Amino acid sequence: MAYDGQSNAAICMEGGKCLDGTVLIQGSKNAALPVLAASVLIPDTCVFKNVPYITDIDCMKNLLKSTGAVLEEHKEAHMIRIHSENIREYRLPARYVSAMRSSVVLMGALLGRLGEALVDYPGGCVIGERPIDLHLFGLEKLGAQIWTDKNRIHAYADELKGALIKFPFPSVGATQNTILAAVTARGTTVIKNAAREPEVTALCDFLNKAGADIEIGHDFIATGRIVIHGVDISRLHGVEYTVIPDRIVAGTYMFAVLCAGGNITLENAPAAQLRSVCALIRKMGADVVLDDENDRILVSTDTKQIIQNVPFVETGVYPEFPTDLQSPLLASACVSKGTLILKERIFSSRFKVVEELVRMGADITALDNERVQVRGVAKLAGRTVIAQELRGGAALVIAGLAADGITTVTDTRYIKRGYQDIVGDLERLGARISYVD
Ligand code: UD1
Predict the structure, then answer these.
(1) pTM of the entire structure?
(2) Is it the case that residue 5 has pLDDT exceeding 80?
(3) Is the CB of 133 under 6 A from ligand 1?
(4) How many Cβ atoms from other residues are within 10 Å of residue 345's Cβ?
């Protein structure tokens, strides 16, 4: 059954087949969402290419429409044209905001455009505490007045003013929200300890193309410093922008090779953004060739029997090992030789997938709230397991490639929030996998 973007059909697979072939990496969810949100700041028409066909983007499209933006979509071409000449609504509909946490970045864009934003507390995957205090901290520093009650946040500013903002933690979303509000603020904003993730740089690139004046130095990874010189909104203009490739989807397929064995080429893959991941995969015994010039990554292992766990991995902010690949790593560690201790440092509750992997025969012990110990086993056993969140759901799919017999992953709507066609991609790589009703 082909992916229709709507149904919640289960994913069913028979393990034991090596992966072989080439897969084209989709546009990045986490880069596309903030640039689409940024379009409401620009009183003109923007064209976005390489937009992934996933449900979180559908949610963002609905949010944009609710503000008065007019969207033209060319699904086959992964292209969206957004006309933002008549943005007039600062209140965002609760049903979309509560469905997706990144709806909160619309606050910065709406403040910049209309001087006001009213949103419900945002939703998203259940991976632990996800407060938005740092978002509000950044917006308040720029002069926004903020009122919150149990359910809603109301932000208002007669005029936003540039400020020095030092984040106590480099939150990705809070950095993006602050940048969006600062683009048209009066004067200069300096953000210290900004998030260094490529999706932050991508947002700045997009905004600069559209007429913003943002300095993000070559030493950004070391300094975490962003300088935004506010411009009059009339300086912002429509642009054509191509969304960067998705490093997390690329990483997921690399860990799939560790689970299943094989030899794959990732095309349109952000090799430079995956250095820490590639270094780990090499340490685990696979061959990885990074072809930066052609945006290509080759991952291979002659036999998956040689894949070994490294003793310790911890997640961290970019360029450290990404929290979004923690679950895919966990899946491959379950079927690698030796023992891994895996520490999650970014989110407080990101081990929900452990229970399902244990049901498949994995040997995982929780050491404390942040750490699990994985002892590799020769094989997992096919079972019916439940996706409870996006990356954990994808991890169950790649675990199924290493399981004896049939694995069925249910509640796949979580996976469709971020993976355009995980089934089609793995099928093209030779996996025995399909959607079932
Ligand atoms: C983004 C990504 C997500 C990724 C995460 C970390 C998008 C749409 N999502 O999420 O896939 O896993 O970065 O790389 O881009 N925090 C606070 N207060 C705040 C904001 C965050 O305490 O106001 C905490 C969070 O609870 C979490 C940590 O900071 O523990 C990291 O969150 P953040 O960097 O903000 O991640 P997101 O932007 O939500």
Answers:
(1) 0.96
(2) no
(3) yes
(4) 16
